[in-house]
Amino acid sequence: ASRRYAGDTAASDILLDLHSAIESAGLTDRQAEAVAYVYGLDTTQGQAARLLGVSREAVKDLLFQATKRIAAVYRRRNHEEVTAVFEGETVNETEVE
Fold first, then answer.
1. Spatial contact of 56 and 45, defined as CB atoms under 8 Å apart
2. For helices 56-76 and 45-52, what crossing angle results, to 10°?
3. pLDDT tens digits for 51-88?
4. Which of 27, 30, 52, 60 is most buried, judged by most C-beta within 10 A?
5. Whole-number CA gyration radius for the chain
6. Are 15 and 4 in contact (CB under 8 A)?
7. Other Cβ atoms closer than 10 A to 63
């Protein structure tokens, strides 16, 4: 996000597209909160768990389910391959269906 303030218009386009995909994904409130804390505010999953009053494992599950929904939006929009990274693990869209 900081790159868009430095005039990087490609970063701005990516962020707008991602925001639109998140809005279209039909996330639950908890999934949206987990995404906002971990990816929006750059907190750790442990910090997000404390803020949400759940376990770190619950946050990991919320994020996994949220990214599956977001990836589905990109698939519907005919983007090529969608890949998500979870703490060193890479998950391709074909692995989460």
1. yes
2. 100
3. 999 999 999 999 999 999 999 998 888 755 556 666 65
4. 27
5. 14
6. yes
7. 21
